[in-house]
């Protein structure tokens, strides 16, 4: 669900680590007291010394005199005392202490805001980068700890909050993930340069709320997202889904029609995804048996004659069935329209064809089903599911020989069952991953699958062959293809 990748962040020019030269404050902040001045001198010495034991002694002395200034020295209103205490915590890598001290300094001397922000970021960057490195090494506990530390010192940049939210979701802590995605979105809303972070946060937060069946929350977040990206067909379809769950059927269907009407401006893949959302949210069949039992119980309680009870309750069952057929059919018709519109732009896209055939099957549209199933098998000829759909399409036309022919291929004659599990085209390259399974009782002979990668008009952009070895019965072989070339929208293959 969550599509977030972690990236390292460039460090600022200033440093606050041991062994580095001391950097003076970039705002007019003077010690104003001998204890604060002593703390400043100890910090300078700690920053400039090459000897670790001297550094540690200087840091201890700095903490001692600065705390003395703030507790018994009457300097609690002196911004420099808090500022240099913050610099001390920076050098000792205590983000919570630095955050508290810098906050007090800034409240007392607002003109130091930019300088303090720089020092916060000096501490924040290596913590975020440590978290990214730990995440990339699959050390998620260490990564989460690093991001929490980073968030303790800097709350004006969203990346560490977003990364932490993603890790929390992946560890099963959905409620906490929502909290941190909300925090990410709120921070990112303060600066246009964080637009992508805001988009990621709102999208993922809505998806989590949707999966948790928090319908009202998901609807609110989807709507917030759509105020920024009103033409996102996938999110529009998801909004329609949660509206259906809340009984807002007319509103949901209006959204689905809006998606389909956008057509070319939406793009084929979002339309295919919208079609899936629409199909999956067709109303379930009513429990007519339970309704009939309730009807009979009420009839007996009212001492109605048996014949009247039967007639009345049969009518209840028939009414529920008719109502369901009407509402479900309208939903499936919208799903078909979404798939049809997508296929006009991307006519060889296998999953779009497969889903449209299934939709026609549900709608009992035998003519459209057969034509689309033939297109599907032309693209995906060694897939058991595709062949079965073609057999069912012939069956709807009463073509017994063709039905038996394709069922025999799917059930007993298929040399290999080919499933493409991943298809990821981008502007200049495409990755395709698949699995070949031997469904037979004997090993298959080695063979080749020649994949053609095509554009919307069926023009071949690239071709690559997958060498399939002998596969033992009921075993599988995975393959991966990588090709170059822009404009790839779909694939098809043949066996050699």
Structure notes:
Among the domains are: 1-155, no CATH class; 415-496, Immunoglobulin-like (Sandwich). It is elongated. The protein has 19 helices and 6 strands. It is mainly alpha-helical and 496 residues long. Mean pLDDT is 89; it is low at 13-19. The protein starts with 33 loop residues before the first helix and ends with a strand.
Brief summary of the model shown:
The chain is mainly α and about 500 residues long. It has helices at about 35-50, 50-70, 80-90, 95-110, 115-135, 140-155, 160-170, 175-190, 195-210, 215-230, 235-245, 250-260, 270-280, 290-300, 305-345, 350-365, 365-380, 385-395, 400-415, and strands at about 415-425, 430-435, 445-455, 460-470, 475-485, 490-495.
Residue fraction in strands: 5-15%
SSE arrangement, N to C: HHHHHHHHHHHHHHHHHHHEEEEEE
List segments where confidence is low: pLDDT < 50 over at least 5 consecutive residues: 13-19
Mean residue pLDDT:
89
Q: What is the 3D form?
A: elongated
Strand order of the main beta sheet, please? 1-2-5
Secondary structure elements and their pairing?
Blueprint: H1 34-48, H2 52-71, H3 79-91, H4 95-108, H5 113-136, H6 140-153, H7 159-170, H8 174-188, H9 195-211, H10 215-228, H11 233-245, H12 249-262, H13 268-280, H14 288-301, H15 306-345, H16 350-363, H17 366-379, H18 384-396, H19 400-413, E1 417-425, E2 429-437, E3 447-454, E4 460-468, E5 476-484, E6 490-495
Antiparallel strand pairs: 1-2, 2-5, 3-4, 3-6
Helix pairs in contact: 1-2, 1-3, 2-3, 3-4, 4-5, 4-6, 5-6, 6-7, 7-8, 8-9, 9-10, 10-11, 11-12, 11-13, 12-15, 13-15, 13-16, 14-15, 15-16, 16-17, 16-18, 17-18, 18-19
């Amino acid at each position: 669900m969550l599509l977030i990748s972690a990236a390292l962040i460039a460090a600022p020019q200033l440093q606050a680590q041991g062994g580095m030269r001391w950097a003076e404050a970039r705002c007019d902040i003077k010690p104003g007291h001998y204890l604060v001045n002593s703390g400043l001198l100890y910090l300078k010495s700690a920053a400039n010394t090459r000897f670790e034991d001297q550094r540690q002694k200087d840091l201890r002395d700095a903490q001692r005199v600065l705390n003395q200034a703030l507790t018994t020295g009457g300097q609690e209103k002196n911004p420099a005392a808090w500022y240099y205490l913050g610099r001390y915590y920076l050098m000792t890598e205590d983000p919570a202490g630095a955050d508290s001290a810098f906050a007090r300094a800034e409240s007392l001397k607002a003109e130091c805001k930019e300088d303090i922000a720089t020092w916060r970021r000096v501490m924040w960057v290596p913590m975020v980068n440590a978290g990214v490195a730990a995440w990339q090494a699959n050390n998620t506990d260490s990564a989460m700890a690093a991001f929490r530390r980073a968030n303790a010192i800097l709350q004006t940049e969203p990346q560490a909050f977003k990364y932490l939210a993603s890790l929390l979701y992946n560890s099963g802590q959905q409620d906490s993930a929502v909290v941190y995605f909300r925090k990410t979105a709120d921070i990112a809303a303060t600066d246009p340069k964080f637009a992508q972070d805001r988009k990621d946060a709102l999208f993922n937060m809505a998806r989590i709320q949707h999966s948790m069946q928090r319908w009202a929350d998901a609807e609110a977040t989807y709507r917030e997202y759509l105020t920024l990206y009103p033409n996102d067909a996938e999110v529009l379809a998801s909004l329609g889904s949660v509206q259906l769950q809340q009984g807002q059927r007319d509103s949901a269907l209006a959204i689905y029609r809006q998606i389909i009407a956008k057509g070319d401006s939406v793009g084929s893949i979002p339309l295919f995804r919208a079609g899936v959302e629409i199909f999956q949210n067709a109303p379930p069949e009513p429990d007519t048996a339970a309704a009939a039992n309730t009807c009979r119980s009420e009839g007996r309680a009212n001492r109605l004659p048996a014949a009247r009870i039967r007639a009345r309750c049969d009518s209840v069952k028939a009414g529920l069935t008719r109502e369901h057929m009407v509402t479900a059919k309208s939903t499936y018709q919208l799903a078909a329209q979404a798939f049809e519109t997508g296929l006009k732009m991307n006519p060889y896209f296998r999953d779009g064809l497969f889903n449209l055939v299934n939709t026609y099957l549900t709608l009992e549209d035998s003519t459209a089903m057969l034509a689309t199933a033939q297109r599907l098998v032309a693209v995906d000829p060694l897939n058991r599911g595709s062949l079965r759909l073609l057999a069912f399409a012939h069956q709807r036309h009463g073509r017994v020989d063709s039905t038996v022919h394709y069922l025999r291929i799917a059930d007993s004659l298929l040399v290999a069952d080919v499933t493409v599990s991943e298809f990821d085209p981008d502007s200049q390259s495409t990755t395709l991953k698949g699995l070949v399974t031997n469904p037979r009782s004997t090993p298959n002979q080695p063979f080749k699958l020649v994949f053609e990668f095509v554009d919307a008009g069926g023009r071949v952009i690239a071709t690559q062959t997958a060498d399939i070895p002998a596969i033992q019965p009921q075993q599988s072989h995975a393959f991966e293809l990588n090709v170059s070339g822009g404009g790839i929208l779909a694939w098809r293959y043949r066996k050699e």
